[in-house]
Amino acid sequence: MKYSTFVLGLCLALSSVSRAGLAEFAGATVTYQEWHFTTNTNPAAPEVDDNPIGDFPELNARLQGAFFAPNLTWEDGIWRDSALTITIDIPNNQVPNPYKRVLVQMLIQGDLVLSWIRDGEGNDFERISRQMEPAENDPSWLLVTDEWRIEPNPFFERLCYGLSGVDGTEAMIDWIKIQTVCVPEPASIGLLVIGGVSLTFLKRRR
Q: Which residues of 117-133 are buried (b: 16+ CB within 10 A; e: fewer)?
């Protein structure tokens, strides 16, 4: 019983910790991925993959005016070309939760000309906010932070971003980080809390 109480407490504590900045909820399903382009493969697997829902989400790359390029390689951890398009399919919680929040962070050079998130039926979703600011260690790089709300929670979402170079320079991506939070039904949260209270009560009675 002590072990069960400890596990529940640990789950509740972990649910309040955010690696990429999103607020989380007890009982929420959280995924986190990072791409640093250190391997010469495309589609690219994330170098950091904390996704308990399904297989790792791949990142597909497409060059300007070209179809999907399976042999595309990255140069020294940076993806560069006159124009770039990326798509990422992220597995989702199979439970139809009320909504999902997605946080996307990228370190880029160039103009961000395209950004959207859609479900498997082609429905677009709302971007809540966007922040763009120069990187602290090198102002020539731009830190982009987008937050999206997907309602209701689909079986998977597809992210798409497009960049273009400026004044003859190349568009570049150094890294991409994505965190998702599938928010459960209020009833599910309530059951989790009730379960925790019950375990504590039983422990005290013993």
A: bbbeeeeebeeeeeeee
Cα–Cα–Cα angle for 180, 183, 186, nearest 5°? Answer: 170
* Helix, coil or strand: residue 51: coil
Look-up of token digits 């495309």? 42
Which residues, at least 6 apart from 98, have a Cβ–Cβ distance to it below 8 Å?
151, 152, 153, 183, 184, 185
Specify the 3-state DSSP secondary structure of 156: strand
The reported pLDDT for the residue numbered 182 is 87
pTM: 0.75
The count of other CB atoms within 10 Å of the CB of residue 9 is 13
Mean pLDDT, residues 61-84 taken together: 69
Q: With 0-12 CB in 10 A as exposed, 13-18 as middle and 19+ as buried, what is 204?
A: exposed
Torsion of CA 164, 167, 169, 171, to 10 degrees: -20
